[in-house]
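thread from #wetlab-drylab

HS: before we spend reagent money on co-crystallization trials with guanine, can we at least see a predicted complex? here's what I'd submit
DV: go for it
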Amino acid sequence: MSAVIIDGKAVAASIREEVARDCAALRDQGLSAPGLSVVLVGDNEASALYVRNKGRAAERAGIAFQLLQQPSDLTSADVLRLVGDLNDDASVDAILVQLPLPPQVDSRAVIEAVSPAKDADGFHPLNFGRLAEGSPGVVTPCTPQGCMELVRRYDVPIAGRRAVVVGRSTIVGRPLAAMLTNADATVTVCHSRTPDLAGVCREADILVAATGRPGMIDERFVKPGACVIDVGTTPTPDGVRGDVDRVSVEPVAGWLTPVPGGVGPMTIAMLLRNTVALAALRRRAPVSA
Ligand code: GUN
């Protein structure tokens, strides 16, 4: 047996087309294009690349994209003022503050300062709380939303199955555990203090690796036939690497997301979908997402 390789690039392309159609539909109703503003503080190379890719994809879909590139010595007060201005700007539908922020900036305060109605990331505690309650609002965090979309589009059974999420970050692990719970999976969240990690992972029908440790998930962690979702994107001299050792896992798993070309492209597609959903709500217009 060899795993079905989940084509995140193709799924993301079809979602970007859906978003472009939604933007065109708003235009046809005489409504303005959705507006996405991204705040990038400092000169982290990986962040700059992600943000460039987000901007390109947004503009191609018909979203008005604005990048606010800021120096690395900004204070928390400076960033909070910037976010406050974007909250008050009627032309802005969605705000994303690229993480990580420099250490002198209070990330928690910044995330909480973004209006929940303009929260492109779904990181605000109000949106996060709604997801945790089982009644998500208009937006949910992009990377876990992308993982769920891939699992659903490949008809991987979720309800009643065992899901194991390795990693408990607020960006991926925690919201994904909530999404899988809401989809009626039985969910275990693992982390660096979990004993017998391989044994716990081997119980999973759906295994999600979000550790940032390249290649750590090998065939000893995988139940035959399981769906393995690799969220890792660690830059190495040989290119970007996932958390899953594809060579040993592919013959065992039922489905596998590759790196690159799996979850990565989905994150941007979901950001565009969140942006259009927020814009449609602010214009009281229906969208397909
Ligand atoms: N940095 C890495 N992933 C993300 C994300 O999904 N949103 C934001 N704002 N920053 C990130």
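DV: Residues 31-116 form a domain with the Rossmann fold fold (CATH 3.40.50.10860).
HS: ok that's useful, forwarding to the group
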